[in-house]
Model the fold of this input.
Amino acid sequence: MSHITTAGKRREREHVKGFTRRAAQELKQFRKNYELFTLGIPGILYIFIFSYLPMAGIVLAFKNFKYDKGIWGSDWTGFKNFEFFFVSDTAWRITRNTVLYEVGYIILTTFFALLFAVLLNEISQRWVKIYQTALFLPHFLSWVVVYYIVFTLLDLNNGLLNHFLAMFGVEPRNWYLESGPWPYILNVVALWKRIGFSALVYYAGIIAISPDFYEAAKMDGATRFQMARKITIPMILPLISILLILAIGGLVSGDFGLHYFIPHDSGMTYPTTDIIDTYVYRALTKIGDVGMASAVGLFQSVVGLILVLTANLFVKKLNPDNSLW
Done:
């Protein structure tokens, strides 16, 4: 009995020593690189203030919020706010629209961003900066500015697209009173605005690849297409996987600016442009239902987290080196 007790105490002392040793090493590492840790403080504070502190508002999803009573004084309603949303006639439509649009955006953006990144790597360095600027510029434009650009194309009376169609004898169309064309319009606009950022991220990964791989491939007689398929894509596959995992987490969180401003919030386009985020916005501004809006937001966050964890687990099983953690 005493032998077992002594062995247990020895293991406990070794565990404490190991923990103390690791803590000392971490402290030494912090003192050595404290400047780098200091640089991260603004980012940490930003995330804490704007991402973690607002989590206290999660309770609104379970309350019948009244402005005169405040958050904590309002009555608890359990899951009634969730039930109100999911039993509504529009719940299935806006959830379907949100998921399908995001899947389309992810596929199109990934494919064309990779294509443009590979092409940027092939052109002369003299022109790379010009093409980079042209690709990246739409990323910095607000959706309000993009709306006016799209409006100059689609306006019934003065739109460039209607003038172009009139040259072929086609009657002008009021695009903002039709729902059918908008899935194509929104996909094109989203691709135009998003492709620059993703392409430059992939391009940064491509230029980090050692030129020795390409030199060896050229000596073996490989074509540019073969080098892109056998060297470039496999080498940046971890980067592609990470961006895809993060994008999958937003499948139920649509782009509010795109779906609200570009169709001009036209009720006639709701069947094909309305998503969860625009529906929640109208619930807040027109109905004033804070509880239901909070419930939907919580639903989006939880589903997004589950999707990220699931996608990361799937990638980890295929190749642990390509996963987030």
